[in-house]
């Protein structure tokens, strides 16, 4: 444990960036039927880890980048760390030092990443890259820009465990915390919220969900009639009903993981540096 503590208390340097621009692409799942479109998808970026070019899932829910170990065969193992997902099953990851991460004109140095034997993608670009940045996600131009501050009214952004971030959301009169997670293909909601507001939800089907450990568990898909995000009302969004109990061990009132299918509908200022956020309607 002392070895890991030493690893993570080492000062990390991020080269200052002046409005760096990171292009991204999206992959979306085809509609299940002509009547049913879940909106499931993900955000992908091109990144270089120590000059190894990778296509990465951009995941604000991952506290560290995770790389398929076959791409870094010559990096020395510097330690291990325990990690897991919302299902609560933990795995042990090997850790390696990365001297330089380059994503278009965004550069970070001296990062620690996790290695995975079973990762299906090249890599997952995690929160450690952008946690101290002011980010603007533009789904019209398909760009993430850093150090661009909001120009209109903002709301307070909550940070959880110095790793994740989110904000309160509202269903009818109930307000609870959400976690803003670009790595979640669909929004996840604790069944307790659905049980408290049955008139706001319509069950569509049963399903299974997978966490980063590769574990699958049963869940259910619902259509959510209304959700308030700041000054926006999201209507008829798909949610996965699954317990957030594991997350609530850290954040007591966290009942929603706000995923790609809702994030994709808007543009966002996520100013983690100054703990502010703003959701913006996309131009028609």
Molecular structure report:
- There is one protein chain.
- The strands form 4 sheets. A 7-stranded mixed beta sheet has the order 15-16-21-17-20-19-18.
- With about 280 residues, it is mostly beta strands.
- The protein is globular.
- It is about 10% helix and about 50% strand.
- Strand 15 (about 170) and strand 16 form a beta hairpin.
- The chain starts with a helix and ends with a strand.
Q: Uncertain regions: pLDDT < 50 for 5+ in a row?
A: 1-17
Biggest sheet statistics: 7 strands, mixed
| Structural classification | mainly beta
- SSE ordering: HEEEEEEEEEEEEEEEEEHEEEHEHEE
| Gross geometry | globular
Share of residues in strands: over 45%
Reading side by side through the largest sheet, how are the strands ordered?
A: 15-16-21-17-20-19-18
List the helices and strands and how they pair.
Layout: H1 2-9, E1 21-23, E2 25-28, E3 41-49, E4 52-58, E5 66-68, E6 79-84, E7 90-103, E8 106-116, E9 123-125, E10 134-138, E11 143-146, E12 155-156, E13 158-160, E14 164-166, E15 168-171, E16 174-180, E17 187-189, H2 191-196, E18 201-210, E19 216-229, E20 232-241, H3 245-248, E21 254-258, H4 260-263, E22 266-271, E23 276-281
Parallel strand pairs: 4-9, 5-8, 16-21, 17-20
Antiparallel strand pairs: 1-11, 2-3, 3-4, 3-7, 5-9, 6-7, 7-8, 10-11, 10-22, 12-23, 13-14, 15-16, 17-21, 18-19, 19-20, 22-23
